[in-house]
Amino acid sequence: MIEASEYSFDLKQMLWGDFGLLIYLEVVLRILVIMVYTILMIRWIGKRVVGGLGSSDILLIVAMGSAVGDAMLYPSIPLSIPLTVITLIAAFQKLYVYVGIKYQPVRKVTHPNVMKLVEHGKLLKENFEVDDIDKNEVFMLLRQHGIQYLSEVEHAYYEQSGELSVFKYENPPVLENSILPEHLSDQN
Question: YetF C-terminal domain location, by residue (predicted)?
Fold first, then answer.
């Protein structure tokens, strides 16, 4: 930070600073590299990390928050730089969504699949490894839907958001395989 005695108001300096046009090219390249890399890392980490938001939404919030914070806090950064960054981040987000909708091969890489985890009261354990989830997490998500017995569930899907969609039998055939914590310790 600068000392108060050294400060003088200069609108041109505040908006543009002492930077040449090449800094804007560098900002574009930095944003492109960071956004793509971060989206791939968030996708690699998995659905649970981002919860109800998409990976690009999380990145958008973090990146814009950083740009806005820098613009407000550091007088040495001309406003044109964070405004460019914010605009490019928003444009990247729009492009990311558009490309994901328009081109299925891109969507397969950038968006996680919906995965069936329970079918007719049975765990589909082979699908657990695809999304790095274990049976205890599935049981927790089922209990959050009021499920007490695995046999109550006709189908359960692990959504792109990391939430579980549960379809119950209207009249379950039998109530077996309790997923309550006190019963799970008895089963192990």
Answer: 102-171
